[in-house]
């Protein structure tokens, strides 16, 4: 579904990412792990055509992401606050994003009811997105990425800043989406979460993929050894 060809991103003299070839197949649920600065966000940003590669390219369904807008209609994503609109209320934001995907106010109401354990509306009432806590902003972005019922979902550190019950809800939700056939790519610093939900783990070190493995009972221990914890 997604393929990377000789992809490099260089900042000054620093190689932020260098991946010769990577295939992410339909229905893969990939977890990207690595130390701070390893290149996780750079890789996700390149896949989403948010930054220009120094070399190489990315395809989605065999079409270069930099040459086409087609992939945008079947790809949901949330990397950071820059994906939000701070002066809107959460509902206004969902309605705006929903309108881009042909959804009306009633559809948004149903969507929020379906996800009400994650998005407890009372906690958000009367506030603009700019006034929300980091975790609640994260929830808005994650939910908005689900709105188009994407075939591919790309999330950068989705568990960060979430309270334990929201983390648990999100794990179940992502597993359910994966079971429905959605191709998922997430980054995370939480090795337990990522090995629990993902069926494939990519370990990045200094911009290079140093491990690409299917998740097994040993994966968590191996990763803990790698990170020396
Ligand atoms: N705009 C930029 N200008 C210069 N260097 C950058 C820029 N963006 C990223 N980098 C560098 O590229 C490298 C990879 O950064 P990246 O944000 O992809 O890491 P990461 O794995 O997502 O880290 P973290 O876990 O801290 O979020 C880092 O050394 C970072 O300093």
TrEMBL record:
SUPFAM superfamilies reported in the protein's UniProt record: P-loop containing nucleoside triphosphate hydrolases
Q: Which residues form the ABC transporter domain?
A: 2-223
Q: Which CDD domains match?
A: ABC_DR_subfamily_A
Checking SMART domains in the record gives: AAA
What is the official name of this protein in its record? ABC transporter ATP-binding protein
**Is ATP-binding given among the entry's keywords?**
yes
Tell me the organism: Xiashengella succiniciproducens
Keywords recorded for this protein, A-Z: ATP-binding, Nucleotide-binding, Transport
| Signal peptide as annotated in the record | none
Q: Which domain of life is it from?
A: Bacteria
Provide the GO MF annotations for this entry: ATP binding; ATP hydrolysis activity
């Amino acid at each position: 579904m997604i393929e990377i060809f000789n992809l490099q991103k260089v900042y000054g003299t620093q190689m932020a990412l260098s991946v010769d070839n990577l295939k992410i197949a339909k229905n893969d649920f990939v977890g990207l792990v690595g130390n701070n600065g390893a290149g996780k966000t750079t890789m996700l940003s390149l896949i989403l055509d948010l930054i220009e590669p120094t070399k190489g390219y990315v395809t989605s369904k065999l079409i270069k992401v930099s040459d086409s807008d087609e992939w945008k209609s079947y790809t949901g994503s949330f990397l950071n606050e820059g994906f939000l609109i701070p002066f809107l209320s959460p509902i206004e934001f969902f309605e705006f994003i929903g309108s881009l995907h042909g959804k009306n106010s009633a559809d948004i109401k149903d969507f929020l009811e379906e996800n009400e354990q994650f998005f407890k509306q009372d906690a958000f009432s009367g506030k603009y997105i700019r006034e929300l806590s980091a975790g609640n902003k994260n929830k808005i972005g994650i939910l908005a990425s689900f709105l188009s019922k994407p075939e591919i979902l790309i999330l950068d550190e989705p568990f960060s800043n979430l309270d334990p019950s929201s983390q648990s809800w999100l794990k179940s939700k992502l597993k359910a989406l994966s079971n429905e056939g959605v191709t998922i790519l997430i980054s995370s610093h939480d090795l337990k979460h990522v090995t629990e939900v993902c069926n494939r783990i990519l370990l990045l070190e200094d911009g290079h993929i140093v491990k690409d493995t299917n998740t097994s009972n040993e994966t968590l221990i191996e990763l803990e050894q790698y990170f020396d914890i």
